[in-house]
Write a structure and sequence with these properties.
Length: 189
């Protein structure tokens, strides 16, 4: 029986793992795909204090190394179902059942894709899903923003100097030299 099971091996799950190890809780972290989560596929991170510029994969390697260094157990398993039996939480996974006193769910989110031609190939190379993270990379460039007004106004603040034009989802054709920021509506995974 574990004290704590953390579901999700992204930045949130790994951070929870570090705290849990330091608190000497008997813990296991479950990850269904790849340790590092969404950020691991990001080319460059420029907003993590202490690292002016680092690849997403590089930063997540450091998170993982830190967590494992403290003794965190990481297992690859897809969590399918959780039930509660008296005070005990029973987690059904692709690799069997785990019993624990407590659970932290850190399963993140995934961006809602538009499904337009070129979107997949150009992700990270001009197509972005995080206006706050990637807006500054497009300073003084023309961008197309797909999403609500709040994203549009965040990008067009004088400090960011992007020149966005809003379009509706599903019909984006990208002329040369115009970048696409499909920033909004993350869908829970
Ligand atoms: C291309 C890109 C670039 C980005 N750039 C930046 C940036 O420059 N700066 C910035 O601050 N943020 C950036 N972000 C946002 C950042 O990646 C997220 O805010 C962050 O990853 C969220 O962390 P998280 O741990 O909450 O979730 P996630 O990173 O989504 O991790 C969740 C994890 O849970 C796992 N999981 C889900 N369901 C299950 C299940 N049933 N069983 C087991 N495991 C499960 C997933 O496989 C995943 O590994 C970027 C995102 C993307 C996609």
């Amino acid at each position: 029986m574990f004290d704590l099971v953390i579901i999700g091996g992204g930045p949130a799950g790994l951070t929870a793992g570090i705290y849990a190890q330091r608190a000497r809780l008997k813990t296991v972290l479950l990850e269904k795909q790849m340790v590092g989560g969404q950020i691991a596929v990001s080319d460059v991170i420029e907003n993590y204090p202490g690292f002016p510029s680092i690849s997403g994969a590089g930063l997540m390697e450091k998170f993982e190394e830190h967590a494992r260094g403290l003794g965190l157990e990481i297992r690859f398993a897809d969590v399918i179902n959780i039930t509660v039996e008296n005070e005990v939480k029973v987690i059904k996974t692709s690799e069997g059942e785990i019993r624990t006193k407590a659970i932290i769910i850190a399963t993140g989110a995934k961006p809602k894709r538009l499904g337009v031609p070129g979107e997949k190939e150009l992700t990270g190379k001009g197509v972005s899903y995080c206006a706050t993270c990637d807006g500054p990379f497009f300073r003084n460039l023309k961008v197309m923003v797909v999403g609500p007004d709040s994203i549009h106004s965040r990008l067009s603040s004088p400090a960011r100097k992007a020149t966005p034009s809003a379009i509706s989802a599903g019909s984006a054709v990208l002329p040369m030299g115009i970048w696409l920021l499909a920033a909004a509506h993350p869908a829970a995974s």
